[in-house]
């Protein structure tokens, strides 16, 4: 399978920092909070049963980062979408059974943009892990480990991933919509959603920093470019040069629905803190990103993180540990150990 998206055009604006790389891309409320999940996990969970786990996963993520770089941001997002729906239990990796009445999470509308490269990366990592440690390591732990690797490979922090997640037995598309944020959610809505997962306002700001890499389709910010809240004008909270550049690739009507733009218009491929500086300069693409720099509750942290990359890295590593602990399952009652991440154990 072709793993690299086709670069279709780049926008050249007079403003160098706004150069945008455009890419065509093929197309239950949690019973247990992050805090409870954290107590169930440990860094040395596989110390006896699969001591070389991190190296095995790294052999795949390193190769994927070079050969299919889209895998990086896509896997980080895959992990986020897994954790927020039924907890970090690999439920997003399940494929809908042919003939099944109910679709699996993966096929929900809100997951349709998750790039195949992410699923392929986890499948490949699982194969390598199974070849050395058969039947031992959960898909959920492999996903958490791979997401960390990609963050680090892109220049972000390296942190120890706590393990011990079992894979989940439930994967329903209908659980996705109420558990994921949308590009036009308000800060109040985001705070409420994150709180329902045991995550704080600060976690929201820090985890949103994952948008320092990766891409978004035009549909997620189109409303900000042309007719913001029925004004027939762009969102005043977006830099006018960025509006101009984005309009070139994202027309009001009839645009190519596969076109994407980088979240971080200054350093799109580096995992750094430029995302926060961009928000201060009105260069956020999603309304939710830009709102973090405008809301008085989140603005001070945006300022701090824009100034201090190390502070962002430390906070991000901690917040990923918290997010990675949402809804953790242990034992056969709620969990399973899949050999094939896309299929439940029968
Ligand atoms: C705070 C609320 C959030 C909203 C509203 C949001 C929304 C979005 C949207 C609309 C996209 C673009 C999807 C597409 O068009 O393909 C996206 C991409 C992405 N999101 Fe978020 N997101 C949020 C939080 C997070 C969090 C917490 C993480 C991880 C910790 C994350 C990681 C990513 C990554 C890495 C991408 C790029 C994916 C790629 O390039 O394949 N997001 N997000």
From TrEMBL:
<feature type="disulfide bond">
    <location>
        <begin position="83"/>
        <end position="88"/>
    </location>
</feature>
<dbReference type="GO" id="GO:0140825">
    <property type="term" value="F:lactoperoxidase activity"/>
</dbReference>
<feature type="domain" description="Plant heme peroxidase family profile">
    <location>
        <begin position="40"/>
        <end position="345"/>
    </location>
</feature>
<dbReference type="InterPro" id="IPR033905">
    <property type="entry name" value="Secretory_peroxidase"/>
</dbReference>
<keyword id="KW-0732">Signal</keyword>
<keyword id="KW-0106">Calcium</keyword>
<dbReference type="GO" id="GO:0005576">
    <property type="term" value="C:extracellular region"/>
</dbReference>
<feature type="binding site">
    <location>
        <position position="91"/>
    </location>
    <ligand>
        <name>Ca(2+) 1</name>
    </ligand>
</feature>
<feature type="binding site">
    <location>
        <position position="87"/>
    </location>
    <ligand>
        <name>Ca(2+) 1</name>
    </ligand>
</feature>
<dbReference type="InterPro" id="IPR002016">
    <property type="entry name" value="Haem_peroxidase"/>
</dbReference>
<dbReference type="InterPro" id="IPR000823">
    <property type="entry name" value="Peroxidase_pln"/>
</dbReference>
<comment type="similarity">
    <text>Belongs to the peroxidase family. Ascorbate peroxidase subfamily.</text>
</comment>
<feature type="binding site">
    <location>
        <position position="212"/>
    </location>
    <ligand>
        <name>Ca(2+) 2</name>
    </ligand>
</feature>
<feature type="binding site">
    <location>
        <position position="82"/>
    </location>
    <ligand>
        <name>Ca(2+) 1</name>
    </ligand>
</feature>
<feature type="binding site">
    <location>
        <position position="272"/>
    </location>
    <ligand>
        <name>Ca(2+) 2</name>
    </ligand>
</feature>
<dbReference type="InterPro" id="IPR019794">
    <property type="entry name" value="Peroxidases_AS"/>
</dbReference>
<feature type="binding site">
    <location>
        <position position="181"/>
    </location>
    <ligand>
        <name>substrate</name>
    </ligand>
</feature>
<dbReference type="GO" id="GO:0042744">
    <property type="term" value="P:hydrogen peroxide catabolic process"/>
</dbReference>
<feature type="disulfide bond">
    <location>
        <begin position="139"/>
        <end position="341"/>
    </location>
</feature>
<dbReference type="GO" id="GO:0006979">
    <property type="term" value="P:response to oxidative stress"/>
</dbReference>
<feature type="binding site">
    <location>
        <position position="105"/>
    </location>
    <ligand>
        <name>Ca(2+) 1</name>
    </ligand>
</feature>
<dbReference type="InterPro" id="IPR019793">
    <property type="entry name" value="Peroxidases_heam-ligand_BS"/>
</dbReference>
<keyword id="KW-0560">Oxidoreductase</keyword>
<keyword id="KW-0349">Heme</keyword>
<feature type="binding site">
    <location>
        <position position="267"/>
    </location>
    <ligand>
        <name>Ca(2+) 2</name>
    </ligand>
</feature>
<comment type="function">
    <text>Removal of H(2)O(2), oxidation of toxic reductants, biosynthesis and degradation of lignin, suberization, auxin catabolism, response to environmental stresses such as wounding, pathogen attack and oxidative stress. These functions might be dependent on each isozyme/isoform in each plant tissue.</text>
</comment>
<keyword id="KW-0408">Iron</keyword>
<dbReference type="Pfam" id="PF00141">
    <property type="entry name" value="peroxidase"/>
</dbReference>
<feature type="site" description="Transition state stabilizer">
    <location>
        <position position="77"/>
    </location>
</feature>
<comment type="similarity">
    <text>Belongs to the peroxidase family. Classical plant (class III) peroxidase subfamily.</text>
</comment>
<keyword id="KW-0964">Secreted</keyword>
<feature type="signal peptide">
    <location>
        <begin position="1"/>
        <end position="31"/>
    </location>
</feature>
<protein>
    <recommendedName>
        <fullName>Peroxidase</fullName>
        <ecNumber>1.11.1.7</ecNumber>
    </recommendedName>
</protein>
<dbReference type="GO" id="GO:0046872">
    <property type="term" value="F:metal ion binding"/>
</dbReference>
<keyword id="KW-0376">Hydrogen peroxide</keyword>
<dbReference type="GO" id="GO:0020037">
    <property type="term" value="F:heme binding"/>
</dbReference>
<feature type="disulfide bond">
    <location>
        <begin position="218"/>
        <end position="250"/>
    </location>
</feature>
<keyword id="KW-0479">Metal-binding</keyword>
<feature type="disulfide bond">
    <location>
        <begin position="50"/>
        <end position="133"/>
    </location>
</feature>
<feature type="binding site">
    <location>
        <position position="264"/>
    </location>
    <ligand>
        <name>Ca(2+) 2</name>
    </ligand>
</feature>
<dbReference type="InterPro" id="IPR010255">
    <property type="entry name" value="Haem_peroxidase_sf"/>
</dbReference>
<keyword id="KW-0575">Peroxidase</keyword>
């Amino acid at each position: 399978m072709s793993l690299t998206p086709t670069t279709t055009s780049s926008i050249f604006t007079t403003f160098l920092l706004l150069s945008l790389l455009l890419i065509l891309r093929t197309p239950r409320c949690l019973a247990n909070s992050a805090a409870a999940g954290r107590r169930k996990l440990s860094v040395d969970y596989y110390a006896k049963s699969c001591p070389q786990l991190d190296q095995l996963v790294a052999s795949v993520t390193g190769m994927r980062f070079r050969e299919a770089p889209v895998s990086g941001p896509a896997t980080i997002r895959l992990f986020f979408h897994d954790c927020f729906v039924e907890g970090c239990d690999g439920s997003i990796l399940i494929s809908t059974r042919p003939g099944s009445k109910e679709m699996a999470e993966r096929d929900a509308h809100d997951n349709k943009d998750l790039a195949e490269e992410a699923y392929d990366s986890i499948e490949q990592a699982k194969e390598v892990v199974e070849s050395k440690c058969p039947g031992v390591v959960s898909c959920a732990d492999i996903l958490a480990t791979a997401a960390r690797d990609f963050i680090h490979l892109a220049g972000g922090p390296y942190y120890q991933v706590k393990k011990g997640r079992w894979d989940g037995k439930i994967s329903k598309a209908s659980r996705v919509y109420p558990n994921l944020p949308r590009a036009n959610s308000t800060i109040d809505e985001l705070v409420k959603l994150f709180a329902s997962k045991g995550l704080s306002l600060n976690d929201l700001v820090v985890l949103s920093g994952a948008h320092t890499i990766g891409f978004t389709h035009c549909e997620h910010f189109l409303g900000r470019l042309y007719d913001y809240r029925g004004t027939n004008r762009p969102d005043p909270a977006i830099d006018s040069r960025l509006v101009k550049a984005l309009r070139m690739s994202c027309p009001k009507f009839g645009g190519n629905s596969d076109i994407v733009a980088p979240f971080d218009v200054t350093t799109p491929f580096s995992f750094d803190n430029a995302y926060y500086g961009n928000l201060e300069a009105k260069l956020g693409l999603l309304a939710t990103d830009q709102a973090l720099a405008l809301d008085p509750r989140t603005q001070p942290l945006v300022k701090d993180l824009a100034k201090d990359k190390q502070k962002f890295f430390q906070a991000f590593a901690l917040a990923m540990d918290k997010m990675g602990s949402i809804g953790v399952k242990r034992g056969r009652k709620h969990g399973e150990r899949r050999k094939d991440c896309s299929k439940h154990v029968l």
